[in-house]
Structures are given as C-alpha cells and as structure tokens.
Amino acid sequence: MTLKDLEGRILLETGTLLVLDKPPGLPSTGRSLDDDDCLQHALIQRAGAMVWAAHQLDADTSGVNVFTTAKRDVAPLKKALTAPSARKQYLAIVHGTPDWDTLPVTAPIGMVDGTSLGVTDRGRDARSEFEVLDRGPEHSLVRVRITTGRTHQIRIHAAHLGHPLVGEEWYRSPPCTVHPRQALHAGRLTLEGELRLDVEAPIPDDLSLLARALGLRL
C-alpha cells in the first residue's frame, strides 16, 4: 500500500486515535511487526513509530478499523469497543432470501471439531442481529449489528441461519466462488461514554458491483 493510498483511507485522526477504512485482502495486523502484508505495518511506516490495533477485522473484511499511536490507549479502546453501548454495524450480501425482516441470533460460538469454529453449546456467548435491506432473485443484502466480537461471528451466524455470505469459503459447502472475498463490510462504528465516536466507511467498489450484478440496491 502506497502512502497516498493510506492517506486516502484515513477516516479520522485525532490525538492518538486513528480510524481507517481497511481495504479487503489486507489483514489488520501481521504475524510479526516486520510483516509488511498488513495495515498495521503501513501505519507504522507512516508514523515512524509503533502503532497498535484496537481490534481486528478478517483479512477479507473491509471497513472501519481502529488503531492508536499510544500503547496506554489500547486497553481503554478495547473496553469501549466491547461495551454494551458500542454499536458495530456491518453490511453483508448473503445467499438466499430470508423469510424474516429482522432476526436476533444468540448462538454461542466455539471449536466444533478441534480445528474449526462454529455454533456449539460449549461455545462463548455471541449475539448478532440481522436485518434484511433488500432481496434479489437469489441473494439478499443485510445489515448486521453485533454486540459481541467472536472470531468470524457474522460469517458463522449467517451460515447457521442458512444464508452464508457470498464469497464464503469456510462456512459453506461447497465454498462460494461467486465473489473473490466474503461480501462483508464494517460500515459504521458508534461509541458512547468517555470515548465518543461515530464514523462510517464508504461501501467499496467491489461490493457495489456485486450488489448490482445480483439485483440488489445498496
């Protein structure tokens, strides 16, 4: 990622806080601080100093991603992001046309066979709310609000409902090859309390094109 590209993806920069519109295909963080295949590394190069990720997005997920240039702010940011008042909204394109308009999901998520995540009674509490925004012939556009942050939570809950994400490779059989990534975008983050924040990331071009091809209105 070039510096020009990086600057164009900064949604908010104030004090030690950095909020980025993460592009798809780039992890939030790498396997080490020297791993240049991640957004964190690009931010470190820009700052000429350490930058920490306050939360992670899947490599293929685009959208709002929070970082800080001060280690002391990592814990408060994580606390704010996991507070009950935090509102994390995603847009997703899924297979099928749900027969419901809104649906809360409280299916716990954990290891199901020693190597794979999924819905299991032995898992950790996971809460999502799905809302259908538009239906096409064979696919739907949904907004998902999450109040917990389990790994792959939206992907797993969508598959659990029988409506896996378009582009889903792990939680759909056979894997979906309609789109080269999971059609998932972290569109808006709102925090209240000591840290107040309300930031949106624009819908990326690839999802706009996908929605149009599938007969959906974004």
Question: What does this entry look like structurally?
Answer:
The chain is of the alpha+beta class. The protein has two domains: 1-81, Pseudouridine synthase I, catalytic domain, N-terminal subdomain (Alpha-Beta Plaits); 84-218, Pseudouridine synthase. Helices cover 18% and strands 31% of the residues. It has helices spanning 3-7, 39-47, 74-81, 153-160, 205-213; strands spanning 10-14, 17-22, 52-53, 62-68, 87-95, 102-105, 109-111, 117-119, 128-135, 139-146, 184-191, 197-200. Strands 1, 2, 3, 4, 5, 6, 9, 10, 11 and 12 form a ten-stranded mixed sheet that branches. Strands 7-8 form a two-stranded antiparallel sheet. The longest helix is centred in the N-terminal third of the chain and has 9 residues, at 39-47. The model has no long low-confidence stretch (mean pLDDT 95).
- CATH level 4 superfamily of the largest domain: Pseudouridine synthase
The CATH architecture term of the largest domain is: 2-Layer Sandwich
- Based on Cα principal axes, name the global outline: globular
Beta strand %: 25-35%
SSE string, helices as H and strands as E: HEEHEEHEEEEEEHEEH
Name of the CATH first level of the largest domain: Alpha Beta
Distance between the termini: 27 Å
Number of domains: 2
Q: Whole-number average pLDDT?
A: 95
Individual helix count: 5
Per the CATH scheme, the topology name of the largest domain is Pseudouridine synthase
Number of strands: 12
Low-pLDDT stretches: none
Report helical residue fraction: 10-25%
What structural category arises from helix and sheet content?
alpha+beta
Task: Using the CA coordinates, give the radius of gyration.
Answer: 17 Å
